[in-house]
Write a structure and sequence with these properties.
It is built from 16 helices and 13 strands. The chain has helices at about 15-30, 45-50, 75-95, 110-115, 135-140, 170-175, 180-185, 205-215, 215-220, 235-245, 260-265, 275-285, 300-310, 320-335, 335-350, 355-365; strands at about 5-10, 35-40, 55-60, 100, 120-125, 145, 160-165, 195-200, 225-230, 250, 265-270, 285-290, 315. The longest helix has 23 residues, at about 75-95. About 50% of the residues are buried.
Length: about 375
């Protein structure tokens, strides 16, 4: 196959960007001559993260609908959507893609909408157990719909569904450090129970508030904590850690080596975004999930329930997390039997090689 060309669109959060880059990497591995162009939303995270991964990206002047939907401001949103769709049509005329892939996020809608109208086969990848608005709107235009959960025929045509799982960062799976080696690499003591706290790429206020309120309890219990606060909360969290005088809790805005951090941790406290859930499953990590209530259709709660209902994670609602999260986490990290059980059950839910499977489905669309 000579120089196949693909457009990949989506972004807004790491949960959309990581799968998109993983799919691109899998396509390049299978077709080294492939030309891949990303389309994102101007000013969003993908405009820096995608070039860092080695791919070209073009930004669209697209943004999300404003609540309530009848807001007059949505007139401007729709104008931007039409401008973006027109821009994508010109990109397609110039780039000549053979397949367009959408992973969700603002840019996916005008991109796949335009691609389908111009006869370019489309594949969408839905990460969550509850389909997002963008992907639901694109379902009729897509030739194939790759999903990570059962029961997605509630949202999509059953004859186009393929259960592939969610692609994750390959660096996480490639890491072979022992727990002690990983802790040394993170600057931690090797023999202490260890918790990794991740609130998503931007941080999570409820989780941060709970950790901050429990700093002394971690210290008294001898538990060390890798605390990813997010860039918006780092100053406040560092100040509280310093004021309290604890030495076992280590706040940082962003964990640069997530592979080592996962390896170092006995348990993980996390939001329940689709990428985080997939990473926990593939790595077999015991976790305490605190779903964000500030997401469309409360899909993080549904993601978390998909694990907790199978005894593969602990679930704590956001509205009680500040009162219960620290005590529950300290109790869990001290119970090796429960940790082992959670690890055993969560590994059953892992779907490996997702990026390769999705890439194969993309390539099949060229041949149709």
């Amino acid at each position: 196959m000579k120089e196949p060309r693909f457009i990949i669109s989506g972004g807004g959060t790491g949960g959309h960007i990581f799968p998109a880059v993983s799919i691109a990497n899998a396509l390049k591995e299978k077709c080294p001559d492939a030309k891949i162009l990303f389309i994102g939303a101007e000013g969003r995270m993908e405009m820096t993260r995608v070039p860092e991964a080695g791919y070209e990206i073009i930004g669209l002047p697209v943004r999300g609908l404003i609540r309530p939907l009848w807001s007059p401001k949505n007139i401007g949103v729709m104008i931007d959507f039409l401008r973006s769709r027109r821009k994508v049509k010109q990109i397609i005329r110039d780039f000549h893609p053979q397949v367009a892939v959408g992973v969700g996020g603002f840019a996916s809608a005008p991109t796949l909408n335009a691609a389908a109208a111009m006869g370019v086969p489309c594949l969408i990848q839905e990460q969550n157990s509850y389909a997002g608005v963008t992907n639901k709107s694109l379902a009729k235009k897509a030739k194939k719909i790759c999903v990570a959960y059962d029961g997605m025929e509630r949202f999509f045509p059953a004859d186009r569904l393929i259960k592939t799982g969610n692609p994750v960062r390959q660096s996480l799976l490639a890491n072979t450090m022992t727990k002690a080696e990983a802790r040394r690499a993170m600057g931690l003591e090797t023999d202490r129970p260890t918790i990794l706290v991740i609130g998503g790429s931007l941080g999570a206020r409820t989780i941060n508030n709970a950790i901050a309120a429990g700093l002394e309890r971690f210290e008294r219990s001898g538990v060390q904590v890798i605390w990813q606060t997010g860039k918006f909360y780092i100053d406040e969290c560092q100040r509280k850690t310093k004021e309290t005088g604890v030495t076992l809790v280590h706040p940082q805005a962003f964990v640069s080596d997530m592979a080592a951090a996962y390896r170092a941790a006995d348990i993980v406290i996390s939001r329940a975004g689709a990428s985080s859930i997939s990473e926990l499953c593939l790595l077999g990590k015991a976790s305490v999930l605190v779903p964000s209530p500030n997401v469309a259709e409360d899909h993080q709660t549904k993601n978390a329930r998909a694990l907790s209902d199978r005894n593969a994670a602990l679930f704590i609602p956001d509205n009680i997390a500040e009162q219960t999260l620290v005590e529950e986490s300290i109790a869990l990290v001290s119970d090796k039997n429960v940790i082992a059980s959670l690890e055993h059950e969560v590994l059953k839910l892992a779907l490996p090689n997702s990026a390769d499977i999705i890439a194969d489905e993309v390539l099949k669309l060229i041949e149709q």
